[in-house]
Amino acid sequence: MKPTQEQILSALNKLVRENKTELKAEKIELGLVDDIEKLIKANRDERKKLDNAITDWYNKIFSVNKDFPKISKIYTSYDKSLKSLTSKLDSLTKQAKELGVPPRDIPAYIEGSGTVKRSQDMVDEYLEATRAAKSIKGAL
Fold it and tell me: How far apart are CA 135 and CA 73, in angstroms?
């Protein structure tokens, strides 16, 4: 028995539908693969940017830490001059009291006392910088 034209067309249609389905699936898979490949490339590019940014950041930290001994040296000199000023103000206070003159009547005493009070901010700032430098050094 020979297949009718209708049966042949039906069988061909069925084959075409099956092949289209397979092709669609392959097309979807290829599209997904392309998307993944693009994301991989984008991720590599972003990773490279991030790595460079982190490296630059570390280099800046190393640079800053290299300068810290210079800051410490300047602070040592500053602290020495501050202690000397405080000592001289104490001597001035003693002498002024011996003479019966209130130290607040002496302009140098007023200015020196203000300088000592304002210096505490700088001392605090230096101590905070020292803590930061130690924590950075410990993290590296």
Answer: 20
Mean of pLDDT values over 105-115: 92
Work out whether the CA dihedral 43, 48, 49, 50 comes out positive or negative. positive
Which helix (H) or strand (E) segment holds residue 76: the answer is helix 5-99
* pTM score: 0.53
pLDDT tens sequence across 41-96: 998 999 899 888 988 887 777 776 677 788 889 999 999 999 999 999 999 999 99
Residue 58 to residues 17, 72, 104, 106: CA-CA distances in angstroms? 61, 21, 51, 52
Give the CA angle between residues 28, 30, 34 to the nearest 5°.
Answer: 115
Taking the alpha carbons at both ends of the chain, their separation in whole angstroms is 87
